User: Fold ABC transporter ATP-binding protein from Pelotomaculum isophthalicicum JI.
Amino acid sequence: MKGADNVLELAPALNKKPAKIKLAVKDINHMYLSSNGKPTECLKDINLEIEDHKFVAIVGPSGCGKSTLLNIMSGLIKPTTGDVFIEGKPINGIISRIGYMSQSDALLPWRTVIENVALGLEIRGITKAKRKVIAKELIQRAGLGGFEESYPFELSGGMRKRVAVIRILALDPEVLFMDEPFGPLDVFTREKLQDDILKLWQETKKTIVFVTHDLAEAITLADRVILMTSRPSTIKAIYDIPLKRPRSAVEIRFEPRFLDLHKLIWNDLRDEVIEPKGGLDIAR
Ligand SMILES: Nc1ncnc2c1ncn2[C@@H]1O[C@H](COP(=O)(O)OP(=O)(O)OP(=O)(O)O)[C@@H](O)[C@H]1O
Assistant:
């Protein structure tokens, strides 16, 4: 009888489908050669699997290779050795299933908001009427209604970031790579944009890989935080962030579990970010 009970207890676990691996990084090593021919060993033995629909944040000390890893994962640069796979297929170069947002918003100053948002669709050959409909809807959803005909210089920093995000979303990528997208903004604008990203993930459940130097931002947004060591950079630890969703960027920071996670990861991060000169290089 006890055996039968055990079978019943196990049944839900057995029936549960294993999570689909969206991205796999296998045996990545990366070396840069400086202009004088001196090598910089950047990434060492990186292996990583990212499940579909997960939000993953990468943190680590400045200059450890976070952007390099993101650029390799998104196909922007080829690693010295190793491979990246999307659903088991190797990524060689830039593919349309992937969206990438860099530290700068990269809006075209001579184009209006709606023209910027529609840019990728235009490159893909979508008709003018259709791109207008898609761009307008995204602009409304981003709370930018009324600014369709404005130029980037007429927008605040936060608004520009929102335009940059929806320009990528217009192409409906399966995986979104974001490299410190909110870096230079003030704390209130960052929190607002973090809420936008939380909402975006809640609505679309896209796989997101997000690089940040801000540990609190990583815990606020992610399901999983990857901690990298200083150079040559390896993966030091991976933490699950079991905070319930939907989340609020402002509220979540007062939750005791958030503070516990922050303390736990910060303790591991501290050794990596204290530079020989003694300077701290990460936002707590
Ligand atoms: N194109 C390049 N040529 C030579 N060296 C490079 C190049 N790009 C990056 N590096 C070096 O590789 C290392 C990792 O750089 P990377 O930008 O990936 O780090 P990061 O962790 O994203 O840094 P940060 O947090 O400061 O943005 C640094 O030492 C950097 O100087």
Q: What stands out?
A: The longest strand covers residues 21-33.
